[in-house]
């Protein structure tokens, strides 16, 4: 096999090569989608007809990580809801920042509760899509969360994320994340390694320990589809799946136009099953 096609050695006759599907079929393999071509067992799975069924954009039912003008977003609750409804979503969640992100005009306890009231009002008045009230709460340096438990208990969705102290030692970062996971309020760990492509490396920690804690506490890990993040990476997504941790594909949208970025999430090799 070379760049010209699949050729029989005996007589140099080309037997396949017009399409990729033809090449795989001639070799007795199921077609392997480009997202799976990582030399991580996909060839053996193709031969055994056990490749996973990849999700498509039509499988995306909603988005539960969105920001509005209440913090650092550029659109209102209603504008985000209209865009989500137009995409055919069945549900969404507004998850603005908490107070530790002062540069993002993060919410303190009082503002957070008032924002919940606005979201609930929008949910009642806006038909055709369910709007959940949520928050992206900061995980502080010691693993504490940035809002009181009473306020977090009022939320439908609580995304806990690291936005500071990225240089902590791996053991300290591991402890920090596990403490957040073990809180009673957290639903999802947002952009779990904090990487920004070409700008900031992922912060190191014991991923296995964190994923096991997530599985034990029924906390999902986010696949943040924002192109600067794409976090978790493919290797960590595999680890999460093997340990029974649920994955939530979110866009981290700060504008209605960002919702289309869900495609960079489901192309991160997400699969059914």
Question: Would you kindly provide a written description of the structure presented here, covering whatever features stand out?
Answer:
With 273 residues, this protein is an alpha/beta fold. Helices cover 29% and strands 14% of the residues. It has helices spanning 20-26, 42-47, 77-86, 109-125, 149-152, 170-181, 207-217, 234-242, 263-266; strands at 6-7, 14-16, 62-63, 91-97, 130-138, 157-161, 188-189, 220-224, 247-250. Strand 3, helix 3 (77-86) and strand 4 (91-97) form a beta-alpha-beta unit. The longest helix is centred in the middle third of the chain and has 17 residues, at 109-125. It starts with 5 loop residues before the first strand and ends in a 7-residue tail after the last helix.
Draw up the topology in text.
Elements: E1 6-7, E2 14-16, H1 20-26, H2 42-47, E3 62-63, H3 77-86, E4 91-97, H4 109-125, E5 130-138, H5 149-152, E6 157-161, H6 170-181, E7 188-189, H7 207-217, E8 220-224, H8 234-242, E9 247-250, H9 263-266
Parallel strand pairs: 3-4, 4-5, 5-6, 6-7, 7-8, 8-9
Antiparallel strand pairs: 1-2
- Please write the string of helix (H) and strand (E) elements: EEHHEHEHEHEHEHEHEH
Question: Averaged pLDDT, please?
Answer: 93
Strand order of the largest sheet: 3-4-5-6-7-8-9
What is the share of helical residues? 25-40%
Number of strands: 9
Main β-sheet: number of strands, strand sense, barrel status? 7 strands, parallel
Structural class: alpha/beta
Cα-based radius of gyration, to the nearest Å: 22 Å
Count of alpha and pi helical runs: 9
Q: Which stretches are low in confidence, meaning pLDDT under 50 for 5 or more residues running?
A: 269-273
Shape: globular
**Distance linking N and C termini:** 33 Å
The portion of residues forming beta strands comes to 5-15%
